[in-house]
Amino acid sequence: MNPLDHTLQTHLPNLCAVDSSAELQSLPLYRQLKPSIDGILGFVLTGEGASGRQPLLPHLRATAWNIERGIELRGIIEAIRQHPTISVSDLLLVTELDYGMARSRNSKVPQELAGALGLHFAFAPSYLNLEKGSGLEISVQGTNAYGLHGNAIFSRFPLREAHSIALPNGKDKMRGKEKRLGCQRAVIAIVEHPFGRFRAVSVHLDAHSTQKHRMRQMRLVLDDLDRFHPELPVLVGGDWNTSTYNSRTALFSILGYVRRVLMGVRHVIRNHYPYPDRWFERHLFRELERRGYVYRELNEPGACTLHYDVADLAANGRMADWIPNWCFWFINWALAKNDGRCSFKLDWFAAKGIEPVAEYPPHVVTDVSAPDLLLSDHDPIVLDFRLV
Asked: Which of 127, 136, 252, 270 could crosslink 180 through cysteines, CB 3.0-4.6 Å?
């Protein structure tokens, strides 16, 4: 039996009525349900894909992509199937997948994606959502079937010993408009590739946290990798939310934005948002290097993966859940000289025991969406590599 297909839906509105995790812990109903909830969020769902496959390239290729819940799942599947770069990937490190959420038509996104593409997969739920989502998502029709959301690994070749690592929250997920149980989870598995075995990690670090908290979350992943077959090469990829901001609270975010305006908006857009490792997120990247991981040669320098436009209603709706409305006037004013847009480098690879293929430099894929259909708010990133 798949524990993700749970029957807790009738109890969730009662849990949603509380306003903090401390209040939740004192609720008799929550204490009664906690073993079941912990079992759901600690489970890793796996599935077998097509067998007998052969490598499509003389080296390995990995794609990391935040697919924004899988809301445009059909388009995402077709993009992975048909895009000349992504379609020959051996490995997909995918973040933000829904499982029974109304906003994505209650699709079981990891199973449907793997089934359509014939891939092996491992999916780790991070959150049991008590709401339909954030921003405009709250107004979608229907109710959540299972209300789960997490991260996954997909592979053309078998995955072994899949497990997940809980990454403590940077803020109380029961405060605010989007109430959730759980925390971000990295999913780890061994890939049985014909060129050799290696470890793959799909990780989504907390957006609503401090820069040092994101570093501490990554440190937990690296600690687990030190214990989990450390003799094998490892590739870590995903959305690390390296926005340069301390977003633990709205106040900290606002103060951070004021600081960047004082630094010069265009200066920050050119020299910090595309290079968060230079200063604002340096603790995370220095920790990777201190632990023997490389990242500089595995990512396209200065190429951003998320693009904000002041006219983006969906992005503004999510932001309006936790910052005051007057902030949008300030944001619009500050970005006016940059046509109301700015971009961030949020998605990354890091690794041990691999080397990039010089003939195929790592890059951000900017043409995955059609002009009239944005598949995700993130661009995928691609890395060609060899095991050493």
From this structure: 127
In degrees and rounded to multiples of 5, residue 133 shows phi and psi of: 145, -155
Positive or negative, the Cα torsion across 24, 28, 34, 37? negative
In this prediction, residue 176 carries a pLDDT of 85
Q: In sequence order, what are the beta bridge partners of 79?
A: none
Phi, psi dihedrals of residue 375, rounded to the nearest 5°: -75, -30
Q: Among 364, 366, 367, 359, which Cα is nearest to 386's?
A: 359
In sequence order, the β-bridge partners of residue 150 are: 97, 125
Residue 293: pLDDT over 90? yes
Q: Which tokens belong to 335?
A: 């970005």
pLDDT digits (tens, 9 = 90+) for 209-246: 999 999 999 999 999 999 999 999 999 999 999 999 99
Q: Which among 144, 133, 149 has a CA at the least distance from the CA of 9?
A: 144
Q: What is the DSSP string of 183-217?
A: -EEEEEEEEEETTEEEEEEE----SSS-HHHHHHH
Backbone Cα Rg of the chain: 20
Closest CA to 96 of 78, 118, 71, 75: 71
Rounded-to-integer distance, Cα 207 and Cα 315, Å: 14
The CA distance from 50 to 118, in Å, is 5
Token pair recorded at residue 361: 């430099």
CA distance 205 to 374: 23
Are the C-beta atoms of 370 and 78 separated by less than 8 Å? no
Instruction: Answer for the pair 223, 214: CB distance below 8 angstroms, yes or no.
Output: no
Q: How far apart are CA 74 and CA 186, in angstroms?
A: 25
CA 259 from centroid of its chain's CA atoms: 27
Token reading at 236 = 């870590």
